[in-house]
Prior knowledge:
By secondary structure, the chain is mainly α. The chain is built from 31 helices and six strands. Helix content is 64%, strand content 5%.
Amino acid sequence: MRFDVPARLSRNHLFTLRWVFCHHSLNRSGEQRCLALLESCTTPTHIHQLLSHLTKTGLSSNLLIITKLISICPQLNAMEIAESMFFQSPIRDAFLYNTIMRGYAQLGDPHKQKSIHFFSLMIKEGVTPNKFTFPFILKACAGLLDINLGLQIHGFVFKLGFYQDEFVGNTLVHMYGCCNGGIDYACKVFDEMPHRRNPVCWSALIGGYVRNGCSSNAIELFRRMQVDGIPPDGITIVSVLSACADLGALELGKWIDMYIERCSIPRTIPLCNSLIDMFAKCGSIEDARRIFDGMPERTVVSWTAIIDGLAMHSHGGEALELFLEMRRSKIQPDDVTFIGVLSACSHAGLVEDGCRYFDSMVDDYGITPKIEHYGCMVDLFSRAGLVEKAFQFVRTMPIEPNTIIWRSLLSACKIHGKLKIGEQISKWLIKFEPNRCSNYVLLSNIYGSMSQWSDKAKVREMMNKQGIKKTPGCTLIELNNSIHEFVAGDKSHPESREIYKMLDEMGKKLKMAGYIPRTTNVLLDIDEEDKEDALHQHSEKLAIAFALLKTPRGTTIRIVKNLRVCDDCHNATRFISKVYYREIIVRDRNRFHRFWRGSCSCNDYW
């Protein structure tokens, strides 16, 4: 038999040719022909054709063929066919169960519950799981973030004696690290492993620490990994870069960048995206731009990361220019990209541009604005002092505003003196979220700004009765590969005596240079001298004093604040940068401030 083969074959042509060839082959058994034909299946239609062939040839109950067929269904989005074949099989062994559980575990989170269902059915039918069963089912638990279910599966692992298996152990660490409240279990499994831990296991625990907000522990574990001589892989490095971004650990981030180069680790797109994010969040937007410019191929995530980074660093104009370049590059922006674009407009005070891009989302790209986009617009108006416009915008939103938007508006009310509106919003938030600390703090601060001390005291009393404690402001600084943390009035640091001496010296020099403490930032009913003392001991000033003690003259100082930097600390840092001739980079909850020679990159707009 002869075929005229076209110069360029489509997938359907290839499948048809393979079908005819296998059907007429006399040198293969029916099973071998079907297994070979399975390799050519590229659509659900091909699978249906093959099922018809199996029925005609009497191979529809062949366990090997059914298992192979089910294994290719996930990538063809044909799990309904897989499930139908599974239940038609007269024999269901552990291998068949593992195959369908793996298929559902590979799909999105809504499908992972199906893996759990088939595991339950496996137990009910008396089929004993093997060591290959548990990595699939534990990954499903991780996707569902269900620690209670994970604990039950862990019980099966222990009962069947698979806790010593390397792959099962790795997946247990990953599962616990993904679940809220599971990081201690992950550490216990990690510490009790009977075999030498491989990079996958280390990476799983480091990633678990990062997901659970324990970035310091992640970096400490990464250093342990190096001491033990375990080379990190690309996945480990991405997790560590996330921890560096969270802590502002630039020096470690730079070391990792050099390590990648030295060890010739492939600079994949996800790895480069993580480097961009890390450098931007650690205050080195120049390095972030260097990585971005050096990428031979970029995705929408790459563009979004650099646009968002530029926005945080007060380079709103440059961020918008890159967005236009992105459009010229034929990269379609998504909803996350527009969050970065609107943030750039907000930080730069570009109200008209922000409104235009907000409308462009729907008109030009068909993207329906989400609550995050509305939040950006409220922030845009609020920062520009257009509090009434922001308030009206919130009241006319087509979707229900969340508490984050109300708190953003509330902060603007305090900053711009719209205290009566702020009082109304605060009282509503406390009724809606009676256990959230920030609602009480904002109302307390508003009463302080209005000098209504008795009302302020009542709010504090309400907090005490409900056991609500204010989140303390803290500042982190990385020096000599160690992270140092300071809180206001802190004297727990081993070198606190020297730090406070430096604070006194700073205070004298700043006043000689013209600095006047902004005591209105101290919302307490105390005299002016005590207010100055309170301002004097803010965590930012403690961290900067420590840096001045420990770093050579001219060295850049980088600190990370967990809250918005107050007016007085912002003003004082401007004077410190001039008096001590230092560049000081401060990352607060909202953005970066780059102080140099008495001025700030935000132009006092934050």
